[in-house]
Amino acid sequence: MFVALDFADLKRARECAAELRPTGVRFKVGLELFCRTGPEGLRALLPVTGPVFLDLKLHDIPRTVAGAVRAAAAVGVWGLTVHALGGEAMLRAAVEAAGAADRPPRCLAVTALTSLDEAALAAVGVAAPMRAHVSSLAHLAQAAGCDGVVASPEEAAVVRGVGGPSFLVVTPGVRPAGVDQGDQARVATPTAAVAAGADYLVIGRPVTAAADPLAALRAVLAELEAAERAR
Ligand code: C5P
Fold it and tell me: Whose Cα sits closest to atom 2 in ligand 1?
């Protein structure tokens, strides 16, 4: 499980990570914190967080993405995201750059943002239904050598079918029962996300914006343990 450190400053991110790390979770750094603090901020965070999942959703021409992947890998990250819509050549360039690093990060392709619903997908010109769209991007990501994809829990089973057992499926859009969806459109409970085949869940505001983040995280972990026992 990754907790998304979507904060505007390093101090809060560090405090949050220090509080939650004893539970064994990992952490994700995204655009907000990275644009504020950059690679230096990331380096300062690593002793508290351990290797992070750097979620910058890179989407540019192959050479530019490869350069960004090399730079991120040099900082030392668990994994990073590129956008599957960048196309096969871009994905291959990212995979190659990651693989050439001293400490190769996992290269994960974002399929369709979990904030998009079917109507929003159609509005950007994609005629295929969400599942078919995510499935074809998962095929593309696998063909390009990516380690896995980021998809919503609603497509986790489809992606697992495409990628097989060793293809990583990472799902944001996780919402414990009764928690506000916020700007996310395709959501599921932690139990449902894991049952659908997710390897890693990403959870942000249900934990980080809770009155007691540690208690909120423990509740999610307890839900997952109970689901595991029931299997
Ligand atoms: O707060 P919340 O649980 O919605 O956070 C989800 C996190 O996952 C955010 O950091 C967001 O940027 C990220 N994410 C996402 N949908 C994707 C890929 C990443 O929500 N498809």
Answer: 204
> Residues 191-223: pLDDT tens digits?
999 999 999 999 999 999 999 999 999 999 999
Q: What pTM did the predictor assign?
A: 0.96
The predicted-structure confidence for 44-88, as pLDDT tens digits, reads as follows 999 999 999 999 999 999 999 999 999 999 999 999 999 999 999
Host H or E run for residue 202: strand 200-203
What's the sign of the alpha-carbon dihedral 186, 191, 194, 199? positive
Tell me if residue 201 falls in helix, strand or coil.
Answer: strand
Q: Please state which CATH class domain 2-230 belongs to.
A: alpha beta
**55, 57, 170, 183: residue to mutate for ligand 1 pocket, most atoms within 8 A of CB:** 55
